[in-house]
Fold this sequence. Notes:
heterodimer, A: mainly beta, 62% strand, elongated, B: mainly beta, six-stranded antiparallel β-sheet, 33 strands
Amino acid sequence: MADDRKIRLYFNEVELDLTNDKYTEDYTHVDSWNVSEAGTNLRAVVRTHIPSLSISYKCDATEKAKLDAFDKASRLTCKRWDESTASIIDWPCCMVNYSPDLIIEDDNTRWYKVSFKLNDLEE
Amino acid sequence: MYPTTLNYSTAIQSNARACTIRGVVGGHSFDAGDVLLDSYSYTNQLCPATEVTLGGVYIGKLALTFTSPYADSLNIRNSWRGLTISIEEGIELADGTFEYIPINIFTVLEAIWSDKGLAIVAYDNMTKFDKAVPFDTTTGSIYDILSLACLDCGVVLGMSSADCAVLPNGSETFGLYPDGTVSTYRDLISQLATASGCFATINRSGALIFRQLPKEEEVSGTVKATQRYSTSFSDYSTFYSGIEVTDVFDEAPHYYNNETANGLTMSLGSNPFLQYGLDEVKNRMRQAIADELEGFVATPFDISILPNPAIDLGDLLTFPGGFGLGCSGCVMNLTHSIKKTRLVGYGKNPTASDVLSNTDKALNGLRNKTSENEVVIHTFVNAQEIALGDDELQSVAKIKFTTINPRKVIIHHEIDLDCEATSEDGIITAQAFYYVNEVLEAYSPITTWNNDGMHLLPLMYVLETLLSGSAYTWEVKLKISGGTATIDRGSVRAYLEGQGLVAVNEFDGNIEITDEFEPFIAGFDIVALSDSVSLTTQRPQTITLSDSYSAFVAGFDIVGLADNVRLRTAYVQFNIVSEDDDFNIVSEDGQYNIVSEGGYN
């Protein structure tokens, strides 16, 4: 792989062998919305711009075994590309909705399409 | 309203802002990341939800749930109860920083561990006043009594004597009437706050303060229609035309009005701080409370707004636009949480409220005449030092009381004696003798001590065969054998309690006169000594008032002339302080006159 590739993920310093079938960043907020007596919106904010990542890619059984271990961990330290700072940052997160789908099996290994979501665990 | 910066005032006008919390529990700091979302709330109020009252002593309550990792990290399991916790709410300013407003200081009362974390319930320092009052009567100014309560309960008083002096009745000397309604310091503070036209609360530093209800023009802030939601406003305003106070002496309700017409009447009950003194004094103090309520006009409401922790109980807010139509409401119940502040004001409709008829008022008076079932307590403390010689019978306590329909009367005494043995065996014997109307009772308890020094003598007696409508004198005499004893001033403490007694400590018409002479050696046998006492009465002097006018020519027939003559009597109240500690007043001119150097001769 070329060194200037931006879409990289490291879980606890272990790099995933991404094929970039899907790499989606989502952002949510913890807030409260109410409509005022005058009909205007009122927003009470607790925390904004909470990231989550949705990933899917194809991998072999060896890669899947690594993901199995990461899925069992209560907390991961993920290194990922951050668009706002244009740099690799450390991001505390955990893996949810992990799903490995078997695509094909040959004489040497089995091939999967894995998908999972990374939820923010920023303190 | 808590004082804030201009940036804060700007920030709370915004329709979107962030709020956070931080605090310290048991010396460990925490922030919003250590508290579960929506678990934090602070609630407090100044009166019940049914109507506006004075004398509120409500407890501020804090609830929040710490995350398990944070609670575990402190490693203080089983030690949470009693921890001090302080909390601040931060409001995001325009530059992205937070301005923190202190909420209060609390003591953790409940701590419950669950899978979600550690749920904390903590209360402010008002709970510390739930402590029994060790006396049944006291006197002093607002500041004096509050200082005593705060000192005894370990709470800081958040008011200076000057702060107290400007309150209604702030310059008066209060006397607590022992009617049994004050059992804890919280009761005491509530009654005192009522008597000074205030409510009591704990301020943001954890100190006790009195606060007055706001006048109509004392607006603390404005909440526009674009800033409030979940709103409701009553279509009437609450205001008061006066107060009703039940006088324990004539057992009837008395009414005091201010200049406001057609308002509600606030009932203060038989407030024990409004019972002592001349009628003029009592009326003046009660009228001051009625006057204090003049100008209080508030519309009951219930609104929610974005978090604004600067709002205090008793703040008067105006609500322009929308359903508010510019009305004003007094914050009587508030809830701060991380996503909103809920504010509620209470009150009754003056036009729809029940108005007491004269019959109702008379019935109220009759209902109050149930003193036969009240427990009445009379107390005694010796004002002079008492010296007990060897084998001398000496009176140490005397209590007078009058019965209506008496049942059992119980009398407790606690006497602190400083004894010194004079006998060879060093044994000191103390025997108490009880007298009812100077007739010795059959029971005379006795005790012995075998060493010098301080000894505490508890005595208890029950009177069971008392007659209705009679006056009694209870007296205890003490005899020390094998030594001598002294009892310091204030070291004889006694109280007499029972039902069916007259509660009023008025002059009973008895005047005791004693005469003493020093022993002398005559040099011959004295057969008898005699003395005489003469009593004269003084007739009231008639005062004649006259007025005169000069004859004049009116130029027409005068049918009649009328004039009014009014005599004003001056009541002068003053205190006499004895400088020789013996409570003696010595007349220097031999004429038994007390000469004032001021204008009241």
